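Progress against Task 2.4 (sequence-to-structure conversion) is shown through the following example record, which the project officer requested during the mid-term review.
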Amino acid sequence: MSAAKAMADPLIRIEGIAKRFTARGNEQTTVFENLHFGVQPGEFVCLIGHSGCGKTTVLNVLAGLDSVTEGYVFVAGREISGSSLDRAVIFQSHALMPWLSAMGNVAFAVRSRWPDWSADKVRAHCMKYLELVNLKGAEHKRPAELSGGMKQRVGIARALAIEPKMLLMDEPFSALDALTRGVLQDEVRRICAETHQTVFMITHDVDEAILLADKIVLMTNGPHAKVAEIVRNTLPHDRHRDTIHKERHYKHEEERCPRGAAGRSRHV
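Structure tokens generated for the chain above:
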């Protein structure tokens, strides 16, 4: 395979997937159908849609935690057949183990990825990512001693520490207050710019998607949800929340991602 072709191939390729289930009385419900889109290496993609359109199901399929009724999902050219350490998930809640410290939670994931590493190497690797999310000095605290935003930072550090090919984020900031959410959005944007991490994130928030994403996938309402449109974000890569509304393409991006199609927006 040529270098040019390798660059052109998406890291994740979704081809005609559908999710259906049978309810009582053998009545079949279609959550979504005929979804097609891809995620390029190093790209930040947001999936937006109302509740019930199957956003979390799509993310769970990418994580290998759920299966589709029809269609195919490929990661790095291979069909997904289960979970993998190449795909890390950040959930809406922090999902930390309460009996472990911040360092212990990250180390648990790192040891799963590299079981032969020495304790010193694991610790140094964990500290690298805890410092990346600005948690130096809090590494020995347990989740009960951390704020909500700090817990999510530990979750982000844990996911990044296994150096996944794909970072999957399930509305990771939705439960946070507006100020904390804004700070963490900025942190995630900074980290992804530094590490060139490939990210697939689901959200209800149009402004969040415009701030973070390189590409925005808009879903229609469920059931029988489909991809309504795929929007390429034309705003500068170095955009910042304090000045983004002054960018000349900002209003155009909001018009291309209408509130009615993507859910109610929350300004930070």
